[in-house]
Amino acid sequence: MTTDGPDNPQKFLFIGGLHRSGTTLLHQCITDHPALNRFRTTNVPEDEGQFLQTVYPDDYAYGGPGQIGFFPAAHLTETSPLATPAHAAQIAREWSGYWEKDAALHTEKTPRNLLQSRFLNALFPQSRFVFLVRHPIAVAMATRKWALAPLSNLVLHWLACHETLLADIEHLNDFKIFRYEDFIRKPQAVVDQVYDLVNVPTVPLKRRVRADGNRDYEAEWQELQRWARLKRYSFAERYTAGSRSDWRLRGVLRRLNGLSDRWGWGRHGQAYIPYHEAAVVEGHLRPQLQRFGYDIEDGRFVTLPDAVLPYVQVDDAAGGAART
Length: 324
Prior knowledge:
The chain has 2 domains: 11-212 and 309-323, Rossmann fold (3-Layer(aba) Sandwich); 215-302, no CATH class. With 324 residues, the chain is of the alpha/beta class. The protein has helices at residues 23-30, 85-95, 117-123, 136-147, 151-168, 180-185, 187-197, 215-231, 246-262, 267-270, 276-291; strands spanning 11-16, 36-37, 105-109, 128-133, 175-179, 294-297, 300-303, 312-314, 321-323. 39% of the residues lie in helices and 12% in strands. It has 11 helices and 9 strands.
């Protein structure tokens, strides 16, 4: 087992991305490599390192899924008073009992690494970073049951978090940003790019990655759009996302969502509740989604070639990838 010290510093690969962005699956795929370490038998959700240390608060101190990006305190950088050598040694010590094997490169996945990469880089200067970004509407729909928030607010949260990431990567040297949509389409090519980042030889994938990961959320979005048109929510044109009118729906939504889960209706029951949300997102937030390389066309989720984030572009023809 490696130990932390001036002559033998631990090397980390940190994985970040909003909840429900596919980071758990990506983490599992890459850590099947014998040279990459991971946590095991931790008895914490998804074996995430945030729950195995006592230096910084976990995501749920800031509201958890769909909320953390709205809390300035959740954004940690090298200027944080927690960014000290003593705290780096403490984290490494607290994590040391949970590593699966004796490998030189330790891999840790926590959603909020998206918002604290500069802090982690200050603690562990030899760190590498991988970020996974998924279509904002798919993330919002997947998170809605946990966050109990309107779809528009969850899309705004996605935008806030990725604006932070966009600013933070200016301070990082060794990182790659992938789209979830590219990962599920060509998982081996994406995983190979991660191995290239950390300078280990490639190995074949051992896990199955479904290529239709957004299908159910796309269908739900189309259902919302259909009902929004049937109900003729013209007021959505002057609706302000995040306004106090959101709160009128929240009590009812919370109860109906709970009942739909209890009765086994799942997303099919929830799809018929916030009809106007589709019009709000499409009418007000679509230009901001396009800026990050995502859009909606004929009710379908699409990716755009131009984006402010430097996504790794997976080459369909050659099967390889090159960073833009």
